[in-house]
Amino acid sequence: MGTRRRVVVVGGDAAGMAAAATAKRRAGDDLEIIAFERGSWTSYSACGIPYWVGGEVPSPDDLVARTPEEHRRRGIDVRMGVEVTHVDADDATVRVRDSDGVESSHGYDELILATGAEPYLPDLPGIDSAGIHTAHTLDDGQRVLDDLLESSPRHAVVVGGGYVGLEMAESFVHQGVETTLVTRSGTPMSSLDPDVGGRVHEALERDGVRVRVSSPARGFASTGGRVSAVETDDAAIPADIVVLGIGVRARSGLATAAGLEVGAGDAIVVDSRQRADPERHIWAAGDCAATHDRMSGRLVHVPLGTHANKQGVVLGRNLTGDDVEFPGVLATAITKACSTEIARTGLGEQGAADAGFDAEAVTIETTTRSGYYPGAEPMSVKLIGDRTTRRVLGAQIIGGTGAAMRIDTVAMALWSESTVDDLMFADLAYAPPFSSVWDPVQVAARALASRLVS
Amino acid sequence: MGTRRRVVVVGGDAAGMAAAATAKRRAGDDLEIIAFERGSWTSYSACGIPYWVGGEVPSPDDLVARTPEEHRRRGIDVRMGVEVTHVDADDATVRVRDSDGVESSHGYDELILATGAEPYLPDLPGIDSAGIHTAHTLDDGQRVLDDLLESSPRHAVVVGGGYVGLEMAESFVHQGVETTLVTRSGTPMSSLDPDVGGRVHEALERDGVRVRVSSPARGFASTGGRVSAVETDDAAIPADIVVLGIGVRARSGLATAAGLEVGAGDAIVVDSRQRADPERHIWAAGDCAATHDRMSGRLVHVPLGTHANKQGVVLGRNLTGDDVEFPGVLATAITKACSTEIARTGLGEQGAADAGFDAEAVTIETTTRSGYYPGAEPMSVKLIGDRTTRRVLGAQIIGGTGAAMRIDTVAMALWSESTVDDLMFADLAYAPPFSSVWDPVQVAARALASRLVS
């Protein structure tokens, strides 16, 4: 009371603004909060970009959870188009530059780094050609949409077989463009085991996406400055428009320049309270920060909106006198490639072995509803467990409508370190429109349990 | 080995046949298994009957998981149309009567009671009129369908607001019949808290079902021997066809006659291995048996196919030398009333207080997918927790497509005795087609957690 602390937030997206909003709600006038955002949007859903590009979401405004004006009404001093160029951690000051190039300095009591991640851009010949895009920000999305409209491409190529790659391929298919997905790994979705990734490959092909695996992009051919093909070892794949989705890396330049520790790629290392440097009052959260994987115990970088939001809340609470842990991640993920739902959580078969578990896996085939109920679609569950402790280690699900959200049952089982027997006998919901009498994850748990009997 | 044991199974539906199939698979020729079923079907999904009556499932054969012939091919001697009339437990013998009235006796080494449950039929004037049905067996379902076809009813009345009542009301609406649901309790679905039940009431009315609450049926008027109205305290409700769905009770007459203990209504009391009388080698499972509620610790009777199947497997394994527990239930349940999905697990607000918890509850309103994603529908989550321990105690969910299956996340949290903080921070799946960035159950957990702060 009386001593009004100043918090400076670097980055106006999910993590930074969740932290700011949480802290402001708890501390009110005791805190002055200034948030610098170099772009023109706050608190938006980057995960929604593929659906906007695909025409399922009409406007980028729909993806904005809270506008700068809404944040200001809640007492947060949001400065748009302002880039933080330097952190002087010893002097507790940031230097910033606004969109007119005017520079200024701002002191802080607490500094929140929420600088996010940026798409990885490989140093390949021709990568600067027109028609080559990323899909990381709303501005990126607008450029892809404008390009679709202006150049009416016949052939699209998506480079990268991760979530963004799959979702952008789906977007192009929705827009009626012939689409090829090229990926370095042996199957799309290298976060899945290869057997499950192989099914994703088949599903994409069924939905009209051409897939070329084990085909890293080697460069881009162009005509008149505009991309005309993606070159791989085997072939030049015609491309009137290209989206790169080959991963992101933490944007941690300010942090490293200020002497903070980075790891797991270049992500800022924080403790479980989201403190990057407690002595110098620096915090970090979201896509720029590392976290730990609860299954492997490893430091990891998992840039996802769900973690960014939760970490922001944890940070905002701890900054205002609470003591809350961000408890780590399971690497749960879910996506939809046209008509196929895909989800994973925890460790894959190889990852489990790498982490020192005595891993066993089963894959079962079943249906999303009771087999006799209209709309029942095929689905499969791969479940991984430990032979010695019988602990559930991970799951991968692929199938029709309603398949993928079942991953949360397994995620909750992993969270509480449950055994396959716990999962097999848990009282899960059953009615024919929703499930067979043994829920699909329990069919898998039952099969796995019988394999674990010594 | 060598001494071939004989197992007699009374009842050829889920629990009995799951036990028989499990035991046979494990013990092979060491076991002779004879199953007596008084009806004409084995291993069928009673839960599917409303969807068959509603025209969504074309044939009763679709509801049969395994026919008598399929069981026989697996080495189980299934005798159809044979009723067990007496158990002489001291002599280890059952007396049976076949469909021709021929009686015989059969000795056993192990006896499995899987006699199921029967619909409760109140002793009301006119209840024997033509056109009044239950919906418990496939034969019941056939009678309702035949009656629909032959009498082309204009007005249907469903008596009872539980799952069967709601689902049968939906069936009649699907068949184009004007439908009224009458229920004794103040809201439909008395297993929900009244505030959530009130929403079910509204949803039913929106979908064209007339609902009369606090209206116990007092009798049935008839014309020429056929039902013409259901009489309540307030009114006589025109009815050309009636389905009674006012609950079931365990069919435990053979058990009580043999001196076995019953409780929780008239359900057969078993230990966690499904043994009803270990000394006399009598076992029980499924809708005829009691179990315990993991949240309240109470003995309960929860006649559901999912428990029947699991108990059957537990029984079959223990009968053949394994040692496995059926770990009890959470009273998880799910249903669909036309366009509205409904689910519950664990304790309601009042039930939590009754069980001695220091209960707090929140209800949150959100959407089934990211709000901006096409097809996002409203949903609400009521979450109950304990103020002292912060343990999650129960949840009730109502909403559009994709809402209800989220109950399994909470069920898994209850199973592992997780706190609201565990649930709030668990790494659940997020992508716009599936969820908002905070999953609906985590929105509720976050709201509840903030209420539990002292």
Automatic annotation (TrEMBL), chains A, B:
Residues 6-296 form the FAD/NAD(P)-binding domain. Pfam families: Pyr_redox_2 (PF07992), Pyr_redox_dim (PF02852). Residues 335-437 form the Pyridine nucleotide-disulphide oxidoreductase dimerisation domain. It comes from the Bacteria. Keywords: FAD, Flavoprotein, Oxidoreductase, Redox-active center. GO terms for molecular function: oxidoreductase activity. Gene3D superfamilies: FAD/NAD(P)-binding domain. InterPro entries: FAD-bd_OxRdtase, FAD/NAD-bd_sf, FAD/NAD-binding_dom, FAD/NAD-linked_Rdtase_dimer_sf, Pyr_nucl-diS_OxRdtase_dimer. Its cofactor is FAD. Coiled coil: none annotated. Belongs to the class-III pyridine nucleotide-disulfide oxidoreductase family. This is FAD-dependent oxidoreductase. It comes from Solicola gregarius.
